[in-house]
Amino acid sequence: MSVETVMAYDEALARFEPVLGIETHIELGTASKMFCGCPTGFGAEPNTQVCPVCLGLPGSLPVTNRAAIEGIVKIGLALNCDIVEWCRFARKNYFYPDMPKNFQISQYDEPLCVDGYLDVDVDGETYRVEIERVHMEEDTGKSLHVGGATGRIHGAEYSLVDYNRAGIPLVEIVTRPIVATGDKAPFVARAYATELRELVRSLDVSDVRMEQGSMRCDVNVSLMPRGASEWGTRTETKNVNSLRSVERAVRSEIERQAGVLSDGGRIVQETRHFHEETGRTTSGRSKEEAQDYRYFPEPDLVPMAPSREWVDEVRASLPELPAARRRRIQGEWGLSDLELRDVVNAGAVDLIEATIAHGTDATSARKWWMNQLSRHATEQGVELAELPVTPEQVARVQAMITAGELNDKLARSVFEGVLAGEGTPDEVVAKRGLKVVSDEGELASVVDQVIAENAGVADKVRAGKVAAAGALVGAVMKATRGQADAGRARELILEKLT
């Protein structure tokens, strides 16, 4: 087997212009499947959520899920699409072991949502990704290849098929070619997938969990020589299942295709697989054209004709979308562009907003989530929202700081206790004895002791070197295990020595 030459990324971009396209599949979070009443819960025992309809047994007839249609219309409207007044389903014919009917009910030349766009920001520059179509179809089952080193069919000893996923409502969002991105191409692709995931999540129509397959991206890449006018042959990297991998898959294909073309080879139109461990793609199968699927209208389903009144009702029900929400909170919280980006990337927007709702100011809420708690999440390798601490508990800790019952150092110990499962903030404070020393007499006694034990430093303060009082404050904090009010301790020291 020949080894393909890979060209360095910067050299590839100097010689070629990339053209991207992204097809995203999103499973809707409906209670039942697209054309039958089977449940859709993730992780059930194999082949326990099936019936004659989703198994494609003879004589079974599909019925369209209204909730799924409402879900796709919400997505289409949020993507600035036109909702057509009439459309219908089609049969897309091809054979896979995990396709029970040997055809997929989908939409072909008459999709439900068309001509939209989604704006994304990369390094302060806005790129408009045009949406060609958003259409509805049903998901397939899932094959499990047993044996071998890769988990793929090649080298496997045998394969098993789980049809639980077959028939789950699946929305496909197809972009138009994304051009003029230059060396930002991988980042634009990732930014688009990120923004799309946040948008769909805000609509509450899918959990868009890429690790569970409820959002999957097919990444199309082609290259054309600088100055040329005709696009090159594209490849389609299938089922990319993380935002980072979307970026890496684009970069990998740019480097690979540039190497092939520079060696005088040609790009084959095919599907490819992305490998996380190597960051490279490998060949899958030749890519069929639309005519190869032998589409024809689905005879068992009536066409859909969503009324304008109903579409307007759905439009009115849309929540605040992510871009508008970011603009709002940036102003309300007083964030710079960089600070806003960090908050969004950390997945902290909802957590900070909920903490504010419990009575904390925006600055304090952001401080705890983005510093102390974010560090714990990174160390544990989990998302910020997965930490065993709630916005209400963060607000309670800040309330104790505001009341003078805790300082920042003690608050960090409280969070450590909460994260360790020691109880609520109040319970941790009681168990660990963490409250600030607020008794004036007790604090004054500690100050006197510190002055007596540090006579040399005290003499410097008496001589007018006020900055030396910092060492005495530190000694007070050490003597009280960090539980003294540092500001009041400093005041007492200066009162006694100046």
TrEMBL record:
<dbReference type="Pfam" id="PF02637">
    <property type="entry name" value="GatB_Yqey"/>
</dbReference>
<dbReference type="InterPro" id="IPR004413">
    <property type="entry name" value="GatB"/>
</dbReference>
<keyword id="KW-0067">ATP-binding</keyword>
<dbReference type="InterPro" id="IPR006075">
    <property type="entry name" value="Asn/Gln-tRNA_Trfase_suB/E_cat"/>
</dbReference>
<dbReference type="InterPro" id="IPR017959">
    <property type="entry name" value="Asn/Gln-tRNA_amidoTrfase_suB/E"/>
</dbReference>
<feature type="domain" description="Asn/Gln amidotransferase">
    <location>
        <begin position="350"/>
        <end position="497"/>
    </location>
</feature>
<comment type="function">
    <text>Allows the formation of correctly charged Asn-tRNA(Asn) or Gln-tRNA(Gln) through the transamidation of misacylated Asp-tRNA(Asn) or Glu-tRNA(Gln) in organisms which lack either or both of asparaginyl-tRNA or glutaminyl-tRNA synthetases. The reaction takes place in the presence of glutamine and ATP through an activated phospho-Asp-tRNA(Asn) or phospho-Glu-tRNA(Gln).</text>
</comment>
<dbReference type="InterPro" id="IPR017958">
    <property type="entry name" value="Gln-tRNA_amidoTrfase_suB_CS"/>
</dbReference>
<dbReference type="InterPro" id="IPR003789">
    <property type="entry name" value="Asn/Gln_tRNA_amidoTrase-B-like"/>
</dbReference>
<comment type="similarity">
    <text>Belongs to the GatB/GatE family. GatB subfamily.</text>
</comment>
<dbReference type="InterPro" id="IPR018027">
    <property type="entry name" value="Asn/Gln_amidotransferase"/>
</dbReference>
<comment type="subunit">
    <text>Heterotrimer of A, B and C subunits.</text>
</comment>
<keyword id="KW-0547">Nucleotide-binding</keyword>
<dbReference type="Pfam" id="PF02934">
    <property type="entry name" value="GatB_N"/>
</dbReference>
<keyword id="KW-0436">Ligase</keyword>
<dbReference type="InterPro" id="IPR023168">
    <property type="entry name" value="GatB_Yqey_C_2"/>
</dbReference>
<protein>
    <recommendedName>
        <fullName>Aspartyl/glutamyl-tRNA(Asn/Gln) amidotransferase subunit B</fullName>
        <ecNumber>6.3.5.-</ecNumber>
    </recommendedName>
</protein>
<keyword id="KW-0648">Protein biosynthesis</keyword>
<dbReference type="InterPro" id="IPR014746">
    <property type="entry name" value="Gln_synth/guanido_kin_cat_dom"/>
</dbReference>
